[in-house]
Write a structure and sequence with these properties.
33% of the residues are buried. The chain has a 4-stranded antiparallel β-sheet with strand order 2-3-1-4, with helices on both faces. The protein has one domain: 2-Layer Sandwich (Alpha-Beta Plaits). It is globular and about 40 Å long. The termini are far apart. The chain contains 8 helices and 4 strands.
């Protein structure tokens, strides 16, 4: 029991350090993107689609991922947990149809529940992509969600829209908007 408590305590210390690193990651990318003498430009709030994938849900990382999402300034306007059907998955990943990994991707994403999120903030698409990190966790920056929670390039814990058009399409597909 004592050993298990130590392990749990160590896990929370690691998660706390990673939370701090992910907040620093977004702060650094935002600060370095603006020159010191830049004019202040008011930006509009963007919406993007984020998804916690079956591996992260099964490994019980959802709560920490949601907490990190909010700590990095995102507002979660809509969130739903469900298992995608094969047809929904094929539609969702239609741009990958015909690629060698398409069938494995559909099988993986339908293997268990996912959590879809409508996220809002200024620069939501870019900031979400920065927070989730590289598709390959071995290449991901420390403090990113994929560095912390992905187990492989295939089981990479989270998804993020790569453009405004993709975000609109994915939000419509997932939330029937």
């Amino acid at each position: 029991m004592k050993k298990q408590l130590l392990t749990i305590s160590a896990y929370f210390l690691i998660v706390s350090a990673c939370c701090a690193a992910s907040r620093c990651l977004l702060n650094e990318s935002t600060q370095s993107a603006q020159p010191p003498q830049a004019k202040v430009v008011t930006q509009s709030i963007e919406s993007t689609f984020g998804m916690i994938k079956p591996d992260a849900v099964a490994n019980m990382h959802s709560g920490v991922i949601i907490k990190l999402t909010e700590q990095n300034g995102f507002t979660i306007d809509n969130m739903q947990k469900r298992t995608l059907s094969k047809k929904e998955a094929e539609t969702f990943y239609a741009e990958h149809k015909g690629k060698p990994f398409f069938n494995d991707l559909v099988t993986y994403i339908t293997s268990g529940p996912v959590i879809g999120m409508q996220l809002k903030k200024e620069n939501a698409i870019t900031d979400w992509r920065t927070l989730i990190g590289s598709t390959d966790p071995a290449q991901a920056t420390v403090g990113t969600l994929r560095k912390m929670f992905a187990t492989s390039k295939s089981n990479n814990a989270v998804h993020g829209s790569d453009s405004a058009a993709s975000a609109q399409r994915e939000l419509r597909l997932f939330f029937n908007q």
